[in-house]
Design goal:
The protein is α/β, with parallel strands linked by helices. Helix content is about 55%, strand content about 10%. It is built from eight helices and five strands; from the N terminus they run E-H-H-E-H-H-E-H-H-E-H-E-H. It has helices at about 10-20, 20-30, 40-45, 50-55, 65-70, 80-90, 100-105, 115-125, and strands at about 5-10, 35, 55-60, 95, 110-115. It has a five-stranded parallel sheet, with helices on both faces. Helix 7 (about 100-105) links the parallel strand 4 and strand 5. Helix 2 crosses helix 8 and helix 5 crosses helix 6. The longest helix has 13 residues, at about 80-90. The chain is globular.
Length: about 130
């Protein structure tokens, strides 16, 4: 199985931070790189260095994407709009448990998975 390319949102970061951060570390090694946006990392109430030490890659959105995310209004937060737009433009699988973000991903044909699916995929990969 080929490695994927993942972008994780704050709710999943918080879930793994509260339970077992080493699962994200293992997932990044086995499944493929897991990326996080700086704005999302701080939304999860943690310093970027925590996520980097867990094996996640901090990536900056382009200015064009950040402006587009800032201009939109609606059901999604700025961070969720940013996550959606980066995932769509760079073909990431969005890892989220947020129903509004999942609905937006589905509407925009962005690949997605639930936070717990990381563990399922780890088991499938032995």
């Amino acid at each position: 199985m080929g490695k994927g390319k993942y972008l994780i949102d704050a709710c999943v970061l918080i879930d793994y931070q509260d339970s077992d951060l080493s699962i994200l570390t293992l997932a990044a090694k086995v499944l493929g790189p897991i990326h996080v946006l700086p704005k999302v990392a701080t939304e999860a109430d943690s310093d970027e260095s925590l996520w980097e030490s867990a094996g996640l890659k901090i990536i900056e959105p382009t200015l064009t994407i950040a402006k587009k995310a800032a201009n939109k209004r609606g059901q999604l937060s700025f961070e969720d709009r940013l996550t959606l737009l980066v995932a769509k433009s760079d073909l990431y699988t969005c890892i989220t448990n947020d129903r509004a973000l999942r609905a937006a991903c589905e509407k925009e044909n962005v690949s997605m998975m639930w936070g717990l699916e990381l563990m399922v995929k780890l088991v499938e990969n032995r």
